[in-house]
Amino acid sequence: MNLEDIKNPKFLKDLNLTKLNELSNDIRNFLIDNISKTGGHLASNLGVVELTIGLHKVFDSPKDRIVFDVGHQSYVHKILTGRAKQFSTLRQFEGLSGYQKRSESEHDHWEAGHSSTAIAAISGFEVTRKMKNETYKNIAVVGDGSLNSGLSFEALNFLGHSDLAPIIILNDNNRSISKNVGRLNKLLNNMRSSKFYAYAKKSRRKLPKFIYGLKVRLANMIRGFANNITIFDEFGFSYYGPIDGHDLKAVIKFLKIAKNRNKPIVLHFVTTKGKGYLPAETDIDGSWHGVGPFDRVNGNLISKNKENYLTWSNIISEYIYNQAEINDKLKVIVPAMIVGSGLQRFQKDFPEKIIDVGICEAFSVCFSAALSEEFDIFLPIYSSFLQRAYDQVVHDLTRQKLKVILGIDRAGIVGGDGDTHQGIYDIAFLKHIPNIEIIQPSNKEEAWQLLDYAFKYTDKSVAIRYSRNLVKNTSFNKYQAITKPTWKEFNQDGDVNLICYGDNFTRMHNYIKKHKLRINLYNAMFIKPMDTITIDKIISLNKKTYVLEDVTKISGLGSSILEYLAENDKHLDIKILGLPDEFIDHGAQDKIYQKYNLDEESIIKTILK
Ligand SMILES: Cc1ncc(C[n+]2csc(CCOP(=O)(O)OP(=O)(O)O)c2C)c(N)n1
């Protein structure tokens, strides 16, 4: 069928199993075709095609509320709720969001992007429903990776002893982005490999529908009598599963059971991530979780990487790899982002030096703080995900004067992931904490200099920021040590000063050089503590000074300079250029910069006006 004709999911009520299976094929084809052009979360969405069709067949959205955890696997839901036409704009500036978005559709009741909020969200929805004496259903679709997080468990803990009737759909594909980790994963593995599941899967095609359903129910009863209790039973939920999440007949059968229950229920579906597209289905390290454009025939990525350019994650992980060769005490702690952090090679070659703790950012910081008594810890974490661990940075790490090096990846504007993932608050939420320093390199050599500084020359915790942009792969033999907070100065005898850091320094430096502009440029590699000797020099020049942020204007480097001036009764005519006090949507970085007059031309226009 033409998926672009779908207005809402009502049409599903009239489709029989054969038609529904045909629809699954059409949707898979559509996903592969579209995502091969735009990029996006291919594997996760291919895995939930039947589940999402089943949900919309059995339930009545938008009255019944379907919340997808993270929301990266909500593409099928978007198609079934009338958004197929917009897929060519997926994750692009002013286009379709890659996550559920309340402003996009009445079928999106909750927004996420960060994991493990869905069960907590439907807890709130359930209390409201009950209070209003309504009968609609609140459904959380959560992956086995996202179930690992404390937030999911806090919600299970709340719901399990309530008189509410939440429905939890566990989408268990035995993967987070990389291989899933931890005891819960082991428990799910045991459940998945239970004899009953294997038998039911084998025999389901031979059995009439009602007998198959009865068998699962019977098995659950026997399980109960035999005291073969699952973690979900212990939490106070009725548990049904494991169920083959690609068998539409079974999916619909069990969703109907859930619909008719008035108690907390977990349906445990087993699915295959990447189902229906071989490269994604056989992916081992997680590269097909989120992909860029690719050739659908051979599965080759259409690389946008420019020759001789590297990602920041690769530059940083290369340094850490070298550290591992010389430093016996090095340990790398990763909250579920081995691939994103560029650590596959490190994991392969130094498995004993790296620990993936799963999607548990708060735990990762507390755990690292304790480990740091004995080890040198590098903890790469995306800027926006560190928001989850703010208290651990304050309470557990810095307050106790412990030292961990935080690799703040995806700092600044991130592009397609949008508002939930923008790395534009970390300077604000870190700079007021004692015992932590914030640094940012603008090229590869500086990255090594600053990492050396972090490991060797300071006893404080360090947050080293880097973006998701590409960086020139410059070679260097020896480099000078940086042993104290230092900024670099490129004085052009200009009438105005521009202070920037990181990629902003590089792009403004290139632009100013190319256009031979007389602007004095400063590379503020140390955001905290600042290089006050250089600041005093800038003050003595007594020229209009601009500070360019890659974060929100509020509470960035510029505001630190203003505080320094106020504190020391010094004066300088300063203007801060940065992102406004609003959430910044998805879209390519250059489009976002243009929107906020932060592209090179607009910046120079502002400065020279
Ligand atoms: C707080 C937080 N940490 C990390 C991520 C990055 N992330 C996005 S999806 C994902 C894996 C989720 O696994 P699972 O819930 O099993 O879903 P699947 O994609 O396997 O269906 C991770 C780690 C995130 N979105 N939020």
List unreliable stretches of 5+ residues: none
CATH level-3 fold name of the largest domain: Rossmann fold
Looking across the biggest beta sheet, what order are the strands in? 8-7-9-10-12-11-17
**CATH homologous superfamily label of the largest domain:** Thiamin diphosphate (ThDP)-binding fold, Pyr/PP domains
- In what range is the share of β-strand residues? 15-25%
**From the helix content, strand content and strand pairing, which structural class follows?**
alpha/beta
Textual characterization of the structure:
It is a single chain. The chain is an alpha/beta fold and 609 residues long. It folds into 3 domains: 17-194 and 231-281, Thiamin diphosphate (ThDP)-binding fold, Pyr/PP domains (Rossmann fold); 309-472, Rossmann fold, CATH 3.40.50.970; 488-608, Rossmann fold (3-Layer(aba) Sandwich). Helices cover 40% and strands 16% of the residues. It is built from 25 helices and 19 strands. Strands 8-7-9-10-12-11-17 form a 7-stranded mixed sheet, with helices on both faces. Strand 4 (238-244), helix 12 and strand 5 (265-270) form a beta-alpha-beta unit. Helix 5 (118-131) packs parallel to helix 7. It is globular. The termini are far apart.
